[in-house]
Write a structure and sequence with these properties.
This protein is of the alpha+beta class and 191 residues long. The chain is 30% helix and 27% strand. The chain has a six-stranded mixed β-sheet, with no helix packed on it.
């Protein structure tokens, strides 16, 4: 886990917190007292926060996540005719998600039934921060006419903003990472 992810984890657990508290918590969790490595210094924490000004806010030496980046929920869907279509809703506040799959003309056989293992909403949240969905374009379309294809949409709600993106047969560069993150969370491929 890199420094900014550690800082995110601490802020999510404790709320807005001082640089010295972040430094102390990182050092306590690393167990530096009995280790040969040097403990983290406040200057290193400040440096990590300053490199992520788009994510962190600092007011009177108290670090918080910017409200427009503090994740509340994510809803995403993808599908095409005849299917299947997938929908996921993730509630980051309560750390739960719902995943739906449906198909108009698909026939379910015993071979299609599957065992699914579920991942961590907390880990999924870290992946979403890395992808910067708030920087995705509003609309992804090909330059030519598409009569049938895969359509998708993503809606990311934060404490103060809603980011929406959609497309037809065209995807943001982070789409493969996004699909993998959903697969880790749900056990289902989102494509």
């Amino acid at each position: 886990m890199n420094m900014y992810e550690k800082i995110l984890t601490i802020i999510e657990k404790n709320g807005p917190v001082s640089f010295s508290s972040i430094c102390n918590e990182i050092n306590d969790s690393q167990g530096y007292e009995n280790n040969q490595e040097k403990p983290i210094k406040i200057a290193q924490v400040k440096s990590a926060v300053s490199r992520k000004k788009d994510l962190f806010s600092v007011d009177d030496n108290i670090v918080s996540i910017r409200q427009e980046k503090e994740l509340v929920s994510l809803t995403a869907s993808i599908g095409g005719f005849p299917g299947p279509t997938h929908l996921i809703r993730v509630d980051f506040i309560n750390e739960v998600f719902y995943f739906f799959e449906w198909c108009i003309d698909c026939k379910v056989s015993e071979k299609q039934k599957r065992l699914v293992t579920m991942g961590s909403v907390e880990q999924f949240k870290k992946e979403i921060y890395k992808m910067k969905i708030w920087d995705w374009k509003r609309n992804y379309q090909l330059d030519h006419l598409v009569l049938d294809g895969t359509s998708w949409n993503v809606k990311l709600k934060t404490k103060s903003k809603v980011y929406e993106s959609e497309g037809l047969e065209s995807f943001p560069s982070e789409w493969t990472k996004f699909s993998r993150a959903i697969n880790k969370l749900t056990g289902i491929y989102f494509h």
